[in-house]
Amino acid sequence: MTYELYYWDGMQGRGEFVRLALEDAGADYIDVAREPDRGTKEMIKLMKSTSEPHIPLAPPFLKDGDLIISHVANILFYLGPKLGLAPAGEPLRWFANGLQLTITDFVAEAHDTHHPIAISKYFEEQKPEAEARTSEFLKNRVPKFLGYFERVLQQNPDGSGHVVGNGITYVDLSLFQVMEGLAYAFPKAMKHYAGHYPGLEKLRDKVKVRPNIADYLASPRRAGFNEHCVFRHYPELDIAL
User: Fold this and answer.
1) What is the architecture, at CATH level 2, of domain 90-210?
2) Does the model's pTM come out above 0.90?
3) Cβ count within 10 A of residue 51
4) Most distant pair of Cα atoms in the chain: their distance
5) For labelling, which of 41, 56, 93, 108 has a CA lying 20 to 30 Å from the CA of 74?
6) What are phi and psi of 31, to 5 degrees?
7) Are the C-beta atoms of residues 160 and 82 closer than 8 Å to each other?
């Protein structure tokens, strides 16, 4: 059965973490907002439904038949075993889910660098606060999160070069997206951190050349990073450390 992914058109955003898993696995899926006869209207209609008992608050969410699953970590926890992107055994699957939830926290903090006061306000309306928030994020939060994931990767008893288990999982794909997003949003800071997290850098490069991922990255299905997304590049926030 074809999966249906619901997310905003024209941006990577949080939906990209799900797309990467679907693309890497070669899964049959429809990016609903990009369908000319369906588009974003169908997504909003479903979110505002007064009859659907399992309505999501916001995208991304996934439809698999009659089942609707919302939230990135929840979607990937569901898809992982089906796509061959989850570690073997229940203990490692719960660990992988915890790692993905930690990525969710990290991504939320990255987003809040440019919208520290309110999502409803433009970046220009909260620029001083954004600059202060970004400085704290880059100096303290980035090394905290990346340092944690580097330790997890290096301490993986399988020694596989992957974060959990002995093969590729959705967590690896998500960390690739995080590294790419940080490099786009904060090139000066990430240049400063180059070499600090060698395991994560090798993992990013390893994911990038996986056949299905390489094809996806070179295709029009992969939206470019832009300033309507989670990872945004503003010169004022590109702080040199």
Assistant:
1) Up-down Bundle (1.20)
2) yes
3) 5
4) 53
5) 41
6) -90, 95
7) no
For the sheet with 67-70, list strands across it. 29-31, 3-6, 61-64, 67-70
How far is it, in rounded angstroms, from Cα 77 to Cα 107? 17
Place of tokens 């997504």: 43
Q: Characterize the bridge pairing of strands 61-64 and 67-70.
A: antiparallel
Residue ranges of domains in the chain: 90-210
What is the Cα–Cα distance from 175 to 193, expressed in whole angstroms?
A: 16
Structure confidence by residue, pLDDT tens digits, 184-212: 999 999 999 999 999 999 999 999 999 99
pLDDT, one tens digit per residue, over 44-103 is 999 999 888 889 999 999 999 999 999 999 999 999 999 999 999 999 999 999 999 999
Q: Which residue in the block uniquely carries the two structure tokens 């049959």?
A: 28
Work out whether strand 3-6 and strand 61-64 pair parallel, antiparallel, or are unpaired: antiparallel
Q: What is the DSSP string of the chain?
A: --EEEE--TT--TTHHHHHHHHHHTT--EEEGGG-TTTHHHHHHHHHT-SS-TT--SSS-EEEETTEEEESHHHHHHHHHHHHT-S-SSHHHHHHHHHHHHHHHHHHHHHHHTT-SS-TTS-GGGGHHHHHHHHHHIIIIIHHHHHHHHHHHHHT-TT-SSSSSSSS--HHHHHHHHHHHHHHHH-HHHHHHTTTT-HHHHHHHHHHHTSHHHHHHHTSTTSPPP-TTSSS---GGG----
Nearest Cα to Cα of residue 16 among 154, 160, 222, 241? 222
